[in-house]
Write a structure and sequence with these properties.
Number of strands: 17
Number of helices: 7
Strand order of the largest sheet: 1-2-3-4-5-6-7
CATH class of one domain: Alpha Beta
Helix content: 10-25%
Strand content: 15-25%
CATH architecture of one domain: 4-Layer Sandwich
Order of helices and strands: EEEEHEHEHHEEEEEEHEEHEEEH
Structural class: alpha/beta
Shape: globular
Distance between the termini: 52 Å
Radius of gyration: 19 Å
CATH topology of one domain: Metallo-beta-lactamase, Chain A
Length: 310
Amino acid sequence: MSSPLPWFQVSEIEPGITLVGEPGFVFSWLVSGRDDQLLIDSGLGLADIRAAIADVADEPLLVNSHAHFDHVGGNALFSRRAIHPLGADRLTHMGDPDAPWEYRALDFGSKATRDYATATYESWRALQQVDRPFHFMLGPEEQVRPWPSLPPGTVAPEPPPPTELVGEGSVFDLGSRRLRVLHTPGHAAEHVCLLDEHEGILFAQDQAYYGPHYLCLAGSDVQAWVESVTRLADELIGAIRVVYTAHTLRYSAPPKLLRELAHAGKCVLAGEMPLAPTEGPDGEAAVAADFGHFSILLPAAAAERRNRID
């Protein structure tokens, strides 16, 4: 692995909540209580996340929101590791060449990875140039790093098996803070969110954020995703004050985003939104419904099925 800094952006967002960011790629979250600490996801594995948080955490419990490569890349650095049972099964097959791409260790030096990372950085640089004179929307937590030069075949260490399994209703007691697990399948069958009821915080990770929602993946299920985000909206709006997320440059969102996502998903399921051809994150054919500050991507076959029905 390369040096942990300056790849990571480590920032205390509020007391007990530290953003551990790989801006433009993925955000992890360190939650600190009186007696223990918990790290939500371990990122890409491109740099040493354990070293990056050494000044603020010693031996946190790692909880994976799901088993996609960008959330489990640093798992091998931690002795305490938890994931949903469906994710544990995925972790055991990440070295399988037949596994879906999102469940295989990322080749940091491959041309496809470098091209994507370079495009991300160059796009951000253009955004930075127009942002600074007037808007000042990009702060330290939104500073995208250039991708390091690595040879093909440089991949994250294979994630070890979890030391414990978690599911709906599991509770992590950190002493002065408690986090409850909500199983939210859709983006991935094993996906979970973590809820701090006392502080009014939902750690949503890939369930809710501003940006493209990839429901075009081999293991995704748009119906389950809509049911999950509808449940979160129904149960949590009015009970939480903030949603912390995993992707794009905005690491937080207001609770109303849950309702907006639920409504959008229902519109897509009902065939009420146009679906435009696009590409999924691995270059696969997909279609997208655009809702302004987020979009929903489905397999290209979804548009074909709709055309046949129409």
